[in-house]
Design brief:
The structure holds 2 protein chains of 2 kinds. By secondary structure, chain A is an alpha+beta fold. Helix content of chain A is about 25%, strand content about 30%. Chain B has one domain: MetI-like (MetI-like fold), CATH 1.10.3720. The chains are: A alpha+beta, B mainly alpha.
Chain lengths: ~350, ~280
């Protein structure tokens, strides 16, 4: 494992992280939702918590926001211990999954809410709210109620409401989950740009690996209440730290210890990405140095638009998926059961420790 | 489901008959309050406002109306506070004994009035040694009026997301600010509906009242009961009955307009159980 704790790239200066979690644990009844999480999130970072549902990522977010109190462990916000503080005492704000806009208030009042409870006078706060709504292109809907908006618009209001109070850290709980694909992709770009221009630390919870990969400076992959791996999108994808990460992020072809033994003579599992595999339809193995070839039989092929996913059962090995960008030498049905050779560069192989950190 | 023509006609006739059976006697009371004939012969001999005038001049009636209104208002206020607090605690928090408490809270509306009346009478007079008064009536009424508020509020709370309160806290609002600016506005119409129902329940309650009212005090229903069989008071009783009808129906109607199904169900049940 190259990078263990988030303190990470040592610049030499002792920088106080925006968020520091130490041995954070949360138990609900007899379920351990979060299990001893250590995590440092840097200033101005776009950090994603990625994991399947039930992996503890949302609980960590709620612990940071203060909606839940940890069973043990500590939470620091900019070096200040906030572990036992109520949500309203913490300088973090949340964009909720269901947006949680106040249905009885107009958009201006929704956005001005945080300023109102801070005692800002009416005119001033409404002006600030108007500016904030302008920024998310909703300046002309000031007087509307949340129910009169579309999902994407509500999402922007929730964002404006959380940002208008200028939090140190913005927490986003799967905020794009309810939007359709096109809108989601558009919002991904907008969110990323917004974060860059504001310089606020964003903590983004998602189960969508593509979303995490495209938006984040760094990603923490959650599993079973713990963090499997922390790293940049590139590191997570290219160098998964364990079988779970290799499987969860993107598609991986995993060779178990025994299969690895017969290929490379090393009894440790490894994985290789589908786009790194080449299929030789003639069955001809590659003889260049630094490449490995294995014979197999095509079991299916699925056209996915930009490429074709060809599934090959390797002789004495696992069934692998290869992503073939070029045109196939025949129709799908003709290719099934065809003997082929699958080749890859040895440096595309990622050796996986039995369990990531 | 599509109904055949004959089925529609039959069902329509039955509906009309049932409604007539319920509302014709009530109309009769209203008509008789203006009937010039002292013995209420039919058809009415003529129109008069004499009974209405008499009713308004009668100090007994005036006192009874004031007592009833006072009891209903105070019982409603108590119900609003306690019912809301109960609903909030039972809906928003999980704790040991929650289901039991939830059942115990609703139970008084299902208990026969006689039982509640005797039990409370015992409690006040023999155990606590409190003299019966209008205050004891208020407390007795609050035990079941609370249920209508509780039912309305809890139904509303189930439909509103606790996420709103979290969002409010997240934006910096303390507990009381959150209640004022977020929770209460969500509950407002449910509280109004529950409160109106509670008022109506208390205003025309007679059984529990009989057991818990102090000597020398009267509420409107008690006054009617006492004067029903006094021949010279009969016309005034009709007037008082009309007042009772109006004061009971208007809040129920308003409550129904204000909140959807929850009121109709709990309200109907409450009234049914009271009879």
């Amino acid at each position: 494992m190259t990078e263990t704790l988030a303190a990470g790239t040592s610049t030499g200066t002792e920088e106080i992280p925006a968020i520091r979690l130490r041995k954070l644990t949360k138990v609900f009844g007899d379920t351990v939702a979060v299990n001893g999480v250590d995590l440092d999130i840097r200033h101005g970072e776009f950090f994603s918590m990625l994991g399947p549902s039930g992996s503890g990522k949302t609980t960590v977010l709620r612990l940071i926001a203060g909606f839940e109190l940890p069973t043990s462990g500590s939470i620091e916000l900019e070096g200040k211990d906030v572990t036992g503080m109520a949500p309203f005492q913490r300088d973090v704000n949340t964009v909720f999954q269901d947006y949680a806009l106040f249905p009885h208030m107009s958009l201006v009042d929704n956005v001005a809410y945080g300023l109102r409870v801070r005692g800002m006078p009416g005119n001033q706060r409404r002006e600030r709210a108007r500016d904030a709504l302008d920024r998310v292109q909703l300046g002309k809907f000031l007087g509307r109620k949340p129910a009169q908006l579309s999902g994407g618009q509500r999402q922007r209001v929730a964002l404006a409401r959380a940002l208008v109070v200028e939090p140190k850290v913005l927490l986003l709980d799967e905020p794009l989950g309810a939007l359709d694909l096109k809108l989601r992709q558009q919002m991904q770009v907008e969110l990323k740009e917004l974060q860059r221009s504001l310089g606020i630390t964003f903590i983004f919870v998602t189960h969508d690996q593509e979303e995490a990969l495209t938006m984040s400076d760094r990603i923490g992959v959650f599993n079973n209440g713990g963090i499997e791996q922390i790293g940049t999108a590139h590191e997570i994808y290219e160098r998964p730290g364990g079988i779970f990460v290799a499987n969860f992020v993107g598609t991986s072809n995993i060779f178990d210890a025994g299969q690895a033994q017969s290929v490379y003579g090393r009894a440790e599992p490894f994985c290789i990405r589908p786009e790194r595999l080449r299929v030789a339809w003639t069955g001809e193995p590659e003889h260049r140095p630094g490449t490995t070839s294995r014979p197999g039989t095509v079991t299916s092929s699925v056209y996915v638009g930009h490429a074709t996913q060809v599934r090959v059962q390797l002789d004495g090995g696992p069934a692998v998926v290869a992503l073939v960008p070029e045109k196939l030498p025949g129709r799908d049905a003709e290719l099934v059961n065809r003997p082929v050779t699958v080749s890859w560069d040895d440096d595309a192989v990622v050796w996986l420790p039995a369990r990531g950190t | 489901m599509r109904l055949s023509r004959s089925a529609k006609v039959v069902l329509g006739v039955i509906t009309v008959l049932v409604l007539l059976f319920i509302y014709v006697p009530l109309m009769l009371v209203v008509v008789n309050s203006f009937n010039a004939d002292r013995t209420f012969g039919w058809p009415p001999k003529g129109f008069t406002l004499e009974w209405w005038g008499k009713a308004f001049d009668s100090p007994g009636v005036r006192d009874a109306v004031l007592s009833s209104v006072w009891v209903a208002v105070v019982a409603t206020i108590i119900s609003l506070v306690l019912g809301t607090l109960l609903a909030l605690s039972l809906q928003r928090y999980k704790f040991f004994g929650r289901d039991v408490i939830s059942l115990l809270v609703i139970l008084p509306i299902a208990l026969p009035g006689v039982v509640t009346g005797i039990a409370l009478n015992n409690m006040f007079t023999t155990i606590l040694g409190v003299p019966l008064s209008l205050w004891t009536v208020v407390i007795a009424h609050a035990t079941f009026c609370m249920v209508t508020v509780f039912n309305n509020v809890i139904a509303r709370l189930r439909r509103t997301s606790p996420g709103l309160e979290e969002a409010s806290a997240d934006l910096g609002a303390g507990v009381f600010t959150t209640f004022n600016l977020v929770t209460f506005p969500q509950l407002r119409s449910a509280l109004l509906a529950g409160g109106l129902l509670a008022f109506a329940l208390s205003f025309d309650e007679i059984i529990v009242t009989t057991f818990t009212i102090g000597a020398g005090e009267t509420t409107l229903p008690i006054w009617i009961l006492q004067n029903l069989f006094r021949p010279n008071q009969a016309p005034v009783v009709n007037v008082v009955a009309v007042v009772l009808i109006v004061v009971s129906i208007v809040p129920i109607w308003l409550a129904q307009k204000l909140s959807g199904d929850s009121v109709r169900v709990s309200g109907a049940r409450a009234k049914a159980d009271e009879r």
